[in-house]
Amino acid sequence: MKQTKTSKAWMREHLNDHYVHLAQKDGYRSRAAYKLLEISDKDNLLRPGMVVVDLGSAPGSWTQVAMQKVGKSGAVFALDILPMDPVPGVAFLQGDFREESVLHQFEAMLDGRTVDLVISDLAPNIAGNAMMDMPRSIYLIELALDFAQRHLRPGGNYLVKAFQGSGYPEYLALLKQHFEQVVTRKPKASRDRSNEIYLLGKNKRADTAPVFDLPSG
Fold first, then answer.
1. Which stretch of 128-137, 179-188, 202-211 has the lowest confidence by average pLDDT?
2. What is the model's pLDDT at position 212?
3. What DSSP letter does each residue of the chain carry, written as one string?
4. Among the listed residues 189, 128, 203, 129, the one whose alpha carbon sits nearest the alpha carbon of residue 161
5. 79 near 118, Cβ under 8 Å?
6. What does the alpha-carbon distance between residue 115 and residue 4 come to, in Å, rounded to a whole number?
7. Which of 141, 138, 100, 93 is CA-nearest to residue 119?
8. Up-side HSE of residue 70: CA atoms within 13 Å toward CB?
9. pTM score, two decimals?
10. Mean pLDDT for the chain?
11. How many CB atoms lie within 10 A of CB 15?
12. Phi, psi (degrees; rounded to nearest 5) at 142
């Protein structure tokens, strides 16, 4: 298939990208690792001994960073609809966390462990139509927030990628209902032209209900 001018420009940018080269050198699966590393360093997010859940983990660069930071005394659980090559020490489940059966499997893997941090760099398949893409994105991160609300310990933290646009202010307001503090982060590895932003909910409130009223059993 013949490349378009847009795809050629993207490929040229990708091949010349500092973080792409750095990821290859450092052994990370994608440049996204440096987004999490910067946020973690700034906010003291990942620490030894923590229990971390990575939603939408493939190809696994955030999972790699999380495992490195929490060490053998901690635990990392990862979930994605796509396959992911194993990361040593990480428990991975392939499945769609929008499905109750997959969530039940994931909860069984947690085996009652208290979760300190939920991270999510997931995004929907982009159609190039904001009228379609933004609602899909918001729905996914609403589901991620619901998961965090159900499994995070009181005082736990939640980091998620969002896209600024329709539905973003409402999601930000929802996040503030569930956490004592909400801050925005735009790490250096996030391209300037991208409208992605990272939202960090700090100190989960103990008295808030789940986002969705899901049936039990």
1. 128-137
2. 65
3. -PPPHHHHHHHHHHHT-HHHHHHHHHT-SSTTHHHHHHHHHHHT---TT-EEEEES-TT-HHHHHHHHHH-TTSEEEEEESS-----TTEEEEES-TTSHHHHHHHHHHHTTPPEEEEEE---PPP-S-HHHHHHHHHHHHHHHHHHHHHHEEEEEEEEEEEESSTTHHHHHHHHHHHEEEEEEE--TTS-TT--EEEEEEEEE-SS---SS-PPP-
4. 189
5. no
6. 45
7. 141
8. 25
9. 0.88
10. 88
11. 9
12. -65, -40
Query: Quick one: pLDDT at residue 9?
Result: 44
Q: Which positions ≥6 away from 83 have C-beta within 8 Å?
A: 58, 94
Longest CA–CA span in the chain (Å) reads 55
Q: What is the mean pLDDT of residues 26-35?
A: 96
| Res 177 pLDDT > 80 | yes
Pair of tokens at residue 205:
């409130």
| For the chain, percent of residues with pLDDT exceeding 70 | 85
Question: Nearest Cα to 178, choosing from 151, 198, 138?
Answer: 151
State yes or no: pLDDT of 210 exceeds 50.
yes
Q: What is residue 95's predicted lDDT score, i.e. its pLDDT?
A: 95
Q: Report the catalytic residues.
A: 161
Name the burial class of residue 98, with classes exposed (0-12), middle (13-18) and buried (19+) by CB atoms within 10 angstroms of its CB: exposed
Domain 30-204 falls under CATH 2.70.50.60: no
